[in-house]
Amino acid sequence: MDYAALKERQRAGRASHHENLVLRSHRALSWLQRAELSEDLDGRFIFLWIAFNAAYATEIDDRYRLSEQETFKQFLQKLCDLDHDSRRIEGLVWREYPKTIRALLDNPYVFQSFWEYQTGKIQQADWKERFAGGKRRAALALGQRDTPMVLGIVFNRLYTLRNQLVHGGATWNGSVNREQLQSCTDLMGKLVPLVIEVMLDSPQTIWGDAVYPVIEKE
Q1: If phi over 0 gives left and psi between -120 and 50 gives alpha, with beta otherwise, what is residue 122?
Q2: Lower CB density within 10 Å: C or N end of the chain?
Q3: For the chain, what are the domain ranges?
Q4: Which residues contact 155 (CB under 8 A, 6 or more apart)?
């Protein structure tokens, strides 16, 4: 589904949806629309990441705060559980594994340990073993139809690219990162609409309070 189809669904059902789902889907859809309008690959990836972030981000008590990566891994697990009967997310992973997912797993430039080696934090043997281990785990998880595990490994790669762009570690429209950016953007462009669709199909699910709630002006 694209923005237009999802927005139509959201409008049709929002009267009966929990306010947290209404806010999350409204925000996520706004950024999905902006991503679809973008002809800029860097911008499209960032807009898709914001759309994903709008869907999953939750206010968490600081005493129990998890890392951002752990938070979205739990979110992906929840989505896969909700999608268990339809298996749309699993189907996407199977279709994309020979293409975008394998390309990401084979690309060291979206693997955080590679950059830790470049800055002298770990040895070359360490990052290479971690890199090979990640590919083995992904292949094993795929064979066991463990979709959340595959997505968790993939999102580690996506998160590295996200950090490179958002924190100024890459050049806009730079030639050196086009391959990984294209793969990541292609995958996110298919996954984010599916995430929103699964959420809209689960209106009774509690997603938690969205970050930065809307405040009425006094």
Answers
A1: beta
A2: C
A3: 3-200
A4: 69, 72, 73, 76
